[in-house]
User: Fold this.
Amino acid sequence: MSRRIRSTDATNTGITLYGYDGANQLTQVTDARMVVTSYVIDGLGNLSQTTSADSGVTNSTYDDAGNLTSITDAKQQKTTYKYDALNRPTLITYADGATVAYQYDQGANAIGCLSRITDASGSINYSYDLQGHVTAEIRIIGGVTSTTGYRYDAAGRLSGMTYPSGRTIDYGRDAAGRVTQINTGGGTVSVVSQVLYQPFGPVQSITLGNGRTITRGYDLDGRVTSFGLAAQTMSVNYDAASRITGIADASNTASGMSYGYDVLDRLTNAISPTAGISYAYDTVGNRLQKNNNGSKTAYTYAATSNRLTKKGTQAISSDATGSITNNGSATFNYDARGRMISANTAIGLVQYTINGLGQRVRKVTPTTTTVFHYDLSGKLIAEVTTAAGMSTTQEYVYLGDLPLAAFK
Assistant:
């Protein structure tokens, strides 16, 4: 049947075993530390139970259409899911009573589109144009409303944004549709005045509004071999496995960083001219030791799982699902989704609010409150921090996924 039943890593010491049921479905994996993870598959091929030494027992149920209807974790926290006639999720209910509700087809041009998400943090409303592009994302966080707007050209490409503060971002494109300019302030402030591209797409250089230029060099495999800003250029070296082995100032390579790896591609050392850090691992990839210039820290794991139990002499505590609850310097609390919602630290209690998209939208410390804003792709575009009654805003501008500028 050509099923994999055993794999041995390149060290010849890491052996993983695989078990199957009569339907040729994977039911068990035993790692090199003899820690077992088992799976129960129902008659329709759905994963109904996972038993893990690391995260405990998780049970799942499904409806007749194969949609997931519930998950119960090792803390007996049950999450339920509901769907509409088109199998779109409409309601998620967590064990702590929190819900995430989804509405569709509401408003102009919204047929077949997500219109609203409502959760404990507030809500997100979407508006659309005739082509189905999102034109506005209206978020309510802690009772405060903010709007991010989106504009498109005739080809449906993003031509501009309006941030919650009112800051406008405008994108200029070449004939191939690639961004070549970015302006803000209604076109009065240049963030990027020119972008040049390699023949097959990667960015070759970016000229910033202040006149400085970011450059990138590539090899024949498309790997970045150099990057520079203004007069400084850094070189990047690789080994035959495309792992980075060195990063250095091209004019003074002796000042750079070098990196070493084992045969399993794990980082084993990072060395500068004045310092060095090395790492050691067990057969499944858990870090066993960190050596920072002779100062060694050992890591200890449970005998029957891969949970970290000690860092140096400090005990580490985890809950039934494997989330760390105490690392010696702080304690951590989680919601029914497994998201960290608070930490008791040296500065006091820090609280986090997570929305239905899994984004951290609010952080509260003993002295500050920060609200975070994101764009449609999930990139952080602004954070507003309030302290002693005064608010400050920091906004970020990107070229694709590359952050280029911050405005305060």
Summary: The chain is about 0% helix and 60% strand.
